[in-house]
Structures are given as C-alpha cells and as structure tokens.
C-alpha cells in the first residue's frame, strides 16, 4: 500500500469517526414521532415488509436495523436511531473519499464532507431512525466505483456498481434514478464496443443479488395475491402515492417552499461553491462517463424532488444535496487553484461551519417572528420550532413523555384513537415497557392487537362501555366521525370523547 493510499485510508477513518461522534451525540434518545416512530415499531416487530405498500418497505434497512435488538445495553429505540447515525457517518466518509479521488486534494474533500454532514435535512435524518442515510452511503459508494471505472476502464468497477445500486434499491426506491443512468451508460459502452454483453449480464446478475430483499417481497406478494400489475404498482408507488410520484404540476407555493428548503440546508456563502463546481464540471474533459452521469443525476434528482408533492418531500432532496456537495468539493478545488492565499481557506472553513450557530438560534428567531413553518403545533411535549429547525435531537424525549403520560391518564380498558404522528410512540412505549396492556390503540394504518376497528359504525356502541380518547382535536388528525358528533374533554395530553350535550 502506497503512502498516499495509507494517508487517504487514515483520513477516511478519521472523517467517519468524527461524523459518527457528532451524530452519536445528536441522536434522539428514544421513541420518535411520525414515520420515524413507525420505523422503530417495525424493527420491534421484525417487520421487513411494512403496511403501506412495497415501495415503502425498504427491506434492506430493516435487515440491518433488526440485529440492533440483540445489543444488550442502551434503550431499544436509541439503538435503532444509531443505525441511521452510523450509516450517515459512512455516507460522509464516502463523500470525502469520492472528492479526494476525483480532485486529488485533501482540502476540497474535507469541505465537501463537512458541507453534507452539517446540511440540515441530512443531519436531521442522521439523528433519527430513517432510511435515507443508508441509501446515501450506498449511492456515494456507487459514484466512487463509477469514478474509478472512468479512470481505469476496469470492468470490476462496473460489477461493483451493479451490486451497490441493487443494495441501494433494496433500501429505497430512490435508487431507481441512478439505475436509469447506469443502464444508459452500459448501453453506450456496448454500442461503442467498450463492453461485452457478457459483462452487462454479470452486472445485471450482481444487481439482482443486491436487490434480492426487495425482489423477494415483490415475488412473494405476486404469489400470495395473484395480482401482478397491482404488485408492480405497489413496488413503484406504494399504496397511495402514485399521483405524487407522477406529478408534473408546480405551484408558486411549492416553488417558494423548495427554495426555502435549499436555503435552510446551505445557509452559508459556500452555497456558491456548487455553482462554481458546476462551471468547472462543464470545462473538464477527463473521466467523461463519470461527469455525464453526475450531471444527469443532478438534473434528475432536482426534477424529482422539486415537483414531488408528499408532505415530507424535504427528505427527498437528500440525493440532490449529496450531488451538490460533490460539486461543492470541485468548486473548492477550482477556487483554491486560483486563490491560494490562506485567508481564502480560512473563509471557506468558517463558512462551512456557519450552519451550526444558525441552526442553534433559528428556533428563537422564528418564535419571535411568529413564523409559520407548516407544522401542526398541537402536540404535547414538542416545541415545533426547536424540533424542526434544529437538526440535532440530543435529549429530545418528547415522544416518550407523551406516550407515558397518555397511557397513565386514561381509564381502565380505554381505547385511544391515535393519529399517525403519535401512534408509533404510544405503541412502542406500551409494548417495549409493558405499560398499560389493557389499553387499545387504534389508527387507520396500524393498531394494537385486539383493538376495535377504526370506523364510525362500531364507535357509538364502543363508547357505551369503554372510555375513548383521541390524540388531537383538530380535523385531519382526529377521526371525522368523532369531531362531527361528540364533545371532547381534555385529559392529560389527550382528549376524552363524551356524548354531546
């Protein structure tokens, strides 16, 4: 091993350890709200397939996370959160290695890694149980082997590309976007005579090996249901997101929100570096395959996230941020070649660290301005400004406190009609801690065992002999048949349903 390789290896490990330490400290200590809580719940139940359609199954993440249950120390929920933290650290280190190999310099690679590590959405998802950081680690691994193929022409790197993309698809269907680019690249190489069809066959076989967890779920669903087209639709869109995935309409509200999201993730003068890097990319001649794929990914990720309309679409910008950070590293290299004064390096480093104090003061500033951030702001033990504007979740125990107090506040044999934000925390605390097993928790997507149905027909009869509570008094979060015909009385963090006077 050469001295340069040894030095790069040590730097890679140092970046991984530094990012792991940051994310380990910022990691949420327990149960979580919303989708992240449902992820924890699925890990607790060893549920690899899920209940919202195959596109939302993310099987490889669960195969990685489920063994965390075997660790004999720390809380279960915290260990699941740490899976995302460690995956994020790998992603940051992979970004460092990618830019280091491409630019040949340490400084641009470190700045690129720091820029991704401290970007708001990526940092936030490194602090909670989510699938995106593991996907990002694999995706950046794809770019590393693609770069090496472009430089060496060795087919083994294409084999690794197929395997890594298959693994990425098994984590998240976002991997389908790079898959399209890779398929086009392979086709072009075959047409130009640089690649034989046997090599393409090996790449495809390795891709199938990587995507095997997802393929297994698809084939099993087809065999059990007998519905091929419905299964393929579920694998592509989930149970209810076809319109969002295929959306082509844009409104000024969505455009404005998307621009604000970009500003939140790069609140620093270094936001100009990806622009400079894009300019440098256009002027480069070396590694043309890598350059073309990177440019295509930039456009495709931007188009996909910008016109996506799901409520949590901010998470789908993470692939775009990863590509922008690669270009930021190239931009740093371009600037430093022309402005080598130490003051320029100090300014770039300072700007790269600037997001940390900005995120620290953002909740206070937003609260004083009474700024609307589009959240519901009615959940006990959750300060929405702090929860959504600070990416770190150190000491954020609101879901645990809410669930414990809610379960302790209800009467014997009570039924809680929960919303999707709070249901996972309630079920997780109840099942993991064995708290109040007499209480039944109900939603339209997941409920405790033996819970009554989530419908209006059985509700009136149920209320005659069991106390019933809801987690919110707002339309869209409380059942419509409750708000329309009953009164609500505040009980701890819940509302008890009573007959209308």
Q: What are the key terms here?
A:
501 residues, mainly alpha, 2 domains, 5-stranded mixed β-sheet, 24 helices, globular
Description:
The protein is mainly alpha-helical. It has 2 domains: 3-356, no CATH class; 398-499, no CATH class. It contains 24 helices and 5 strands. It has a 5-stranded mixed beta sheet with strand order 2-1-3-5-4. The N and C termini lie far apart (81 Å). The model has no long low-confidence stretch (mean pLDDT 91).
Widest β-sheet, arrangement of strands:
2-1-3-5-4
Largest sheet: 5 strands, mixed
- Principal-axis shape: globular
The percentage helix is: 55-70%
TL;DR?
The chain has 24 helices and five strands. With 501 residues, it is mostly helical. Helix 8 packs across helix 11 and helix 21 crosses helix 22.
Write the layout of secondary structure elements.
Layout (H helix, E strand, L loop, with lengths): L2 H24 L7 H11 L14 H7 L10 H28 L2 H12 L2 H7 L5 H21 L2 H17 L4 H16 L5 H14 L1 H14 L2 H10 L4 H4 L6 H14 L7 H11 L4 H19 L11 H21 L3 H12 L1 H14 L15 H6 L8 H12 L5 E3 L5 H11 L6 E3 L16 H7 L2 E3 L9 H4 L2 E6 L2 E6 L2
Parallel strand pairs: 1-2, 1-3
Antiparallel strand pairs: 3-5, 4-5
Helix pairs in contact: 1-4, 2-22, 4-5, 4-6, 4-7, 4-17, 5-17, 7-8, 7-16, 8-9, 8-10, 8-11, 9-16, 11-12, 15-17, 16-17, 21-22
